[in-house]
Amino acid sequence: MRVPSPKQRVFIETGRKEFVRNGYGSSSIRTIAQEAGVSLSALYYHYKNKQDLLLAILMDGVDTYDAVCDAELARAGDDPVEQLCAFVRGNVKFRTQFPDQGRLIATEVRNLEPEGARLYEERRRVGRSRMRDIVEAGVAAGLFTTKYPDDCRRSILAMVSAIANWYDPAGPDTPDMIADRYAELALNLLCPNGLPRTPNDGREQE
Amino acid sequence: MRVPSPKQRVFIETGRKEFVRNGYGSSSIRTIAQEAGVSLSALYYHYKNKQDLLLAILMDGVDTYDAVCDAELARAGDDPVEQLCAFVRGNVKFRTQFPDQGRLIATEVRNLEPEGARLYEERRRVGRSRMRDIVEAGVAAGLFTTKYPDDCRRSILAMVSAIANWYDPAGPDTPDMIADRYAELALNLLCPNGLPRTPNDGREQE
What is the per-residue DSSP string for A136-205? Predict the structure, then answer.
């Protein structure tokens, strides 16, 4: 999917707020145009209907998620434990810094019509393989000793997603503190007998 | 809230199907009455509007959740480990046997208007304290040695909820198999250094 233009970005931001507030079904494309300060036909020039805008908003959410995760993964080394911690950190950042994007993914994907759902699923598949690859690499290296790597993968994704339900930007927990705790919990799942060796063993932290 | 009458039960089942299919915003109370085989005024005799029916459907979902969990907890002994495993089993049963109830709780609670939201939250609080009590009892008994009991509690709830996203009744995993695996994963989180054999025996295990 193409990167949204500055004008499209305005529609995406306005539409996201409206969908979060009212839900997709009760949101009106007319209201979104009004709140974006443009005519309805100006909006229709970019998105042919509400469905088309929903798809753009969800795709933008996935783009944001991918960018946040990939930035963390790029900073981490090749070690599966480091990669896992970076992935958890990226997910915590996404859920705490972009809560509306995460919320819409959780609630409105089911409102995509078949063609949009197909495009969206295809797009998501890339992101899912990221976590799968890390877990497989950790299992292959003998680091992740769990008997249930698939359940762990799904559980870790669910755990970090749920942070959005209770995270309070004004509360005492910073995203970094939360990321550290959840990385530890993720490792408790993947390494039920403890890690064979500590992460960054004998190495300087970046 | 009163137990729904047989007639109300028909509206709850029909409305739930419609809300799962179209989302609350796009669902029509007229269609629900039609599919239930009654006139619109017959439906309005029991529920004053779509909002009122949504609240009844969500409350019915919580009733089902509570009944399934409490049945499992009643079968378990007082030991927090047994209670935790029973709670996980109850959650797995709810997610696998009543997927639509769980799905609506995940997606439509935010469509409740303030008064309904207040009633619903009050009702949910009871259920939440169930898991909180188990975790606190396990921590007090020295069985759950995690440094992060609150994160574990939230994580376990998120993990078991997400089972609904991939569970396939035609697949190879029975709810009992899933419950056993997830109870083990929940204990990996709560007891990161392994489970002491009996409470208060003062021994540490690797």
Answer: HHHHHTT----S-HHHHHHHHHHHHHGGGGT--TTSS--HHHHHHHHHHHHHHHH-TT--SS-TTTTS--
Mean pLDDT, chain B, integer: 91
Element containing residue B165 per DSSP (H, E): none
Q: Which CATH class is domain B54-190?
A: mainly alpha
Residue type, B34: Q
Q: What percent of chain B has pLDDT over 70?
A: 94
Q: Residue written as tokens 């069985």? A: B143
Nearest to B159 among A147, A158, A166 (CB): A158
Convert the pLDDT of each residue in B91-141 to its tens digit: 999 999 999 999 898 888 988 999 999 999 999 887 778 999 999 999 999
CB contact under 8 A, A155 and B155: yes
Cβ contacts of A78 within 8 Å, gap of 6 or more: none
Q: Which residues of A touch chain B, with CB atoms under 8 Å apart?
A: 22-27, 106-107, 110-111, 146-148, 151-152, 154-155, 157-159, 161-163, 165-166, 181-182, 184-185, 188-189, 192-194
Residue B188 C-alpha, separation from nearest chain A C-alpha, in angstroms:
6
Q: Is residue B4 over pLDDT 60? A: yes
Instruction: Return the number of other C-beta atoms located less than 10 Å from residue A8's C-beta.
Output: 17
Give me the residue from B106, B146, B188 closest to A192, CB to CB.
Answer: B188
Distance from CA of B156 to the nearest CA of A (A): 7
Q: Which of B145, B149, B143 is closest to B199 using CA atoms?
A: B143
- How does pLDDT run across A126-176, given as a tens digit for each residue? 777 899 999 999 999 999 999 999 999 999 999 999 999 899 999 999 999
Q: Which amino acid is at A163?
A: I
- B37-70 b/e (C-beta count within 10 Å ≥ 16 → b): ebeeeebeebbeebbebbbbbbbbbbeebbebbe
The number of residues in chain A equals 206
Specify the residue for token string 């495009």. Answer: A119
- For the A57-190 domain, the top CATH level (class) is mainly alpha
* Tokens, residue A134: 């890390």
The two structure tokens encoding residue A162: 């749920």
A84-93, A102-111, B29-38, B79-88: the lowest-pLDDT one: A102-111
Residue identified by tokens 């109300």 is B8
The domain limits of chain B are 54-190
What distances in angstroms separate CA B24 from CA A13, A131, B84, B111, B155, one per listed residue? 23, 33, 34, 7, 28
CA distance B192 to B199: 16
